[in-house]
Design a protein that fits this description.
The protein is mostly beta strands. It has a domain of about 130 residues: Glycosyl hydrolase domain, family 43 (Tachylectin-2, Chain A). It is about 10% helix and about 35% strand. A four-stranded antiparallel sheet has the order 1-2-3-4, with no helix packed on it. It is globular and about 65 Å long. The chain binds beta-D-galactopyranose.
């Protein structure tokens, strides 16, 4: 009897500990959801809708097979950004062998969800690679849902910009450079040819490659898909149709031949800020930053936004999203992934407050911090609560 009472008491304490509310971010640490399981939402983005945040990310499994889509896109919800409730799989992969573009074993990366006011639908975009084709397909794909948490219905995938030149394209670049196919890769001549449309011309008819991506909805309700294109050499920004489910055909390049991946964007004081990474696969590298007064450019390259120890590897992480904190003007959280490709489910999350020095976005490591870092006093004393 006594023993069972003790067990009941112990269970109650354990239950309390599990239910204990988190009050801070702890970048890089295990981040338990409401069930005590490490969040499984990699390459994530966040939607804020009717007073709740929804986190969407790649659901990974144990072992290297988990680098391809085995389950789908996982969704969590939260009121405070620290405590996340498991909402389950928002977009499920189709059964292996079904022939669907999103069948189990395809690659589904960096999902981003936005709400379309005109249709009342939630629209998810993601980077799609077809099963068995490695990263060759380079497509961007769309799914829709009536509810934020899903289930999302797969619509289709795209190679954007088919048959359309970028807005800023010099008409002279429409003609191939003599011998361009035989230019040696990574030479200055080749880089110049890339910046002047080598791959844009190559992919003009089928449409442009689209790998690492994000979605941005502007103040006027127009939305854009920003993705690594041209063999990851150049970022493209492509306008979405009014229902956010397709492309208008208006697009432009960002940082031609700059070799950027992992685009994450925010708008502050009428300017657009972009944080990206270099291209070293799952291994981290130094982040880059850019500013522009129009989403169509010109984009000015700034410095590595990260400062302090491990700035050269972005604190061992790669950007995925710049999250606007609801109700706080110009407060953005830099969200990044610490990839663990040998056991992808272990991947960690680096969330840090994004600061600005003039136009320059800045990041500083913090072991533990909370949203008061965005208050005037918090900004002064540094980020640790
Ligand atoms: C990274 C990219 C990830 C994933 C990975 C595969 O550079 O940002 O989303 O595609 O490469 O190696």
């Amino acid at each position: 009897m006594k023993k069972s009472l003790l067990i009941t008491a112990l269970l109650a304490v354990a239950g309390l500990a599990q239910a204990q509310q988190r009050t801070a971010f702890e970048p890089g640490k295990v981040w338990p959801d409401n069930k005590g399981t490490h969040l499984n939402a990699h390459g994530a983005g966040v939607l804020y809708d009717k007073g709740r945040y929804y986190l969407f990310g790649e659901h990974k499994i144990v072992g290297p097979k988990g680098n391809s889509a085995q389950v789908g896109v996982h969704c969590y919800s939260s009121k405070d950004l620290y405590n996340w409730t498991d909402e389950g799989i928002a977009l499920a992969v189709a059964p292996a062998g079904s022939g669907s573009e999103i069948e189990q074993g395809s690659i589904i990366e960096r999902p981003k969800v936005v709400f379309n006011k005109q249709t009342g639908k939630y629209v998810m975009w993601f980077h799609l690679e077809l099963k068995g084709k490695g990263y060759a397909a380079a497509r961007t794909a769309v799914a829709v849902s009536d509810k934020a948490t899903g289930p999302f219905r797969y619509v289709r995938s795209y190679r954007p910009g088919a048959g359309q030149w970028p807005l800023g394209f010099n008409p002279e670049w429409k003609k191939p450079v003599p011998n361009e196919a035989s230019l040696k890769g990574w030479t200055p001549e080749w880089k110049k040819a890339v910046a002047e449309g080598l791959f844009v011309r190559r992919d003009f008819e089928p449409g442009q490659m689209a790998r690492d991506m994000t979605i941005f909805v502007d103040d006027d309700g127009k939305a854009y898909n920003i993705h690594s294109s041209e063999e990851n050499l150049t970022l493209h920004v492509a306008e979405l149709t009014a229902d956010y489910q397709g492309f208008t055909g208006r697009w432009n390049t960002i940082a031609p031949a700059g070799h950027n991946e992992a685009p994450a964007i925010c708008k502050r004081g009428g300017k657009y800020y972009l944080i990206t990474s270099g291209c070293t696969g799952w291994a981290p590298n130094a982040a880059r930053s850019f500013v522009a007064s129009s989403i169509w450019g010109p984009w000015q390259q700034l410095d590595n936004p990260a400062t302090g120890p491990d700035a050269d590897s972005t604190y061992h992480s790669q950007s995925t999203y710049l999250l606007p904190v609801a109700g706080r003007k110009d407060a953005f959280i830099f969200m990044a992934d610490r990839w663990t490709p040998k056991n992808p489910i272990d991947g960690g999350y680096i969330w840090l407050p994004l600061r600005f020095e003039g136009d320059q976005p800045r990041l500083q490591w913090a072991d533990r911090w909370n949203l008061s870092a965005f208050d005037a006093a918090g900004a002064k004393r540094g980020v640790n609560p």
